[in-house]
Design brief:
Elements lengths: L2 H4 L2 E5 L9 H14 L3 E7 L11 E5 L3 H19 L3 E4 L5 H11 L2 E6 L2 H4 L3 H13 L2 E4 L2 H9 L7 E3 L11 H11 L6 E5 L8 H7 L1 H7 L4 E5 L14 H12 L5 E4 L4 H10 L2 E4 L13 H8 L4 E4 L4 H4 L6 E4 L4 H11 L9 H8 L4 H13 L7
Parallel strand pairs: 1-2, 1-4, 2-3, 4-5, 5-6, 6-7, 8-9, 8-11, 9-10, 11-12, 12-13
Helix pairs in contact: 2-17, 3-4, 8-12, 9-11, 10-15, 13-16
Length: 387
């Protein structure tokens, strides 16, 4: 028998993997890597995910559209479970929790899901009727923040089956030369640079930031530029009409700050790292939106890992991701004047760049190796009593 056949088995079932982009996708890719170090791994994911997964994993790919992904994932999960006889079946989000529960129960495995927030609050009667009961029956539900844990308990998931596991990040530290090179290539020179990263959705609050906060900042610090790296979220779980980018652009025109905004499409990790290095402040003006929630805020710890502080509203799981006074500043929800003051202070001539070391130090607590160790401990062992 091969070494793989002697190893315990694990299945990871998720639509959220690269080549789809976002924090959930990065987390699930790292979760696959961690599982592969300890288990013979099978994965059901979207078309194209195989290239991003560990060598040796048995992979089944399906179209990412929900009505095609879920039936295909169900069939493949049962097929892989029959072959691998897994000890654990992991749903990468609440979306695949029913499939994970079914496969685990049929083959005597432990059923686990990682809940990110939106998969607990999404406004769908069908989802609430069919998916939430399955989440309540899992052996373990990992959640990305204290806020997501509270949401899970509100929806009837027992506290003794919940564990907070913060997403991780690579910690490259600050590279001043890379930042200067990025500015030179993009023509941003030496003006104060704000950065926003991620899929454009109403929850991210950029339209409101551009209308109510950016004009205050530009008035105090003329020449300040907001660089937005992202695009409309066309593969999101919640359905929306219209373009969020167009809404942001209209808000900029109405506020008279359209010349203070630069746009870049989603980019590769190397380019994104250089953008973080170049920025003075990462802005994260997330809003409290009914039926949607910011479960954690991975971009805040990624910014800190490159030496860039974040200013954010203290909503959802964001307070778990921004270490006050070390990796950024938290502002009361919706307080636009306070948000502008916090940004202006960080880009002032005496403070600009002074946060670099403390941001990197704060981000080190979220390093991927720590995530990996706790993930495996939780999956393998009895659930710790939550604090």
């Amino acid at each position: 028998m091969t070494d793989a056949e002697h190893r315990p088995g694990a299945l990871l079932l998720t639509r959220n993997l690269p080549p789809l982009r976002g924090g959930m996708e990065r987390l699930n890719a790292h979760m696959a890597q961690a599982l592969s170090q300890h288990f013979a791994l099978g994965v059901c994911g979207p078309i194209g995910c195989r290239a991003e997964l560990p060598r040796g994993a048995e992979v089944r790919e399906h179209p990412a559209r929900l009505l095609r992904f879920l039936p295909g994932c169900l069939f493949s999960a049962l097929s892989l479970a029959r072959r691998l006889r897994p000890d654990v079946v992991v749903a990468g989000s609440g979306l695949t929790a029913p499939i994970a529960l079914l496969a685990a129960r049929w083959f005597g495995a432990r059923a686990v899901a990682f809940a990110h927030g939106l998969d607990l609050v999404v406004r769908s009667r069908v989802y609430r009727a069919l998916w939430l009961p399955c989440l309540r029956r899992l052996d373990l539900v990992l959640v990305n923040s204290a806020n997501t844990r509270a949401l899970a308990m509100e929806r009837g998931i027992p506290a003794d089956r919940l564990a907070v596991l913060h997403p991780g990040t690579a910690v490259p530290g600050h590279d001043e030369e890379a930042g200067r090179a990025f500015r030179a290539e993009t023509g941003l020179t030496d003006q104060p640079l704000l950065l926003s990263v991620g899929r454009l959705t109403p929850r991210k609050g950029l339209a409101e930031f551009v209308r109510g906060v950016l004009p205050r900042i530009v008035a105090e610090r003329p020449g300040t530029t907001l660089l937005v790296i992202g695009a409309d979220a066309r593969d999101a779980l919640t359905h929306r009409t219209g373009s969020e980018q167009a809404r942001i652009e209209r808000a900029a025109q109405e506020a008279g700050v359209e010349t203070a905004i630069r746009w870049m499409p989603p980019c590769d990790d190397a380019t994104l790292a250089r953008a973080y290095q170049a920025a003075d402040v990462h802005v994260f003006p997330v809003r409290e939106t009914p039926g949607d929630v910011e479960g954690f805020g991975m971009v805040a710890i990624e910014a800190a890992a490159h030496g860039t502080p974040t200013v954010a509203y203290a909503v959802g799981g964001v307070p778990d991701a921004v270490v006050e006074g070390r990796s950024g500043t938290l502002v009361s929800a919706g307080d636009e004047a306070a948000f502008a003051r916090a940004v202006v202070e960080l880009i002032g001539p005496t403070t600009r760049g002074s946060w670099r070391d403390r941001c990197v130090e704060a981000a080190s607590a979220f390093a991927w190796d720590r995530f990996n160790t706790r993930l495996i401990d939780l999956i393998r062992g009895p659930l710790e009593t939550p604090a």
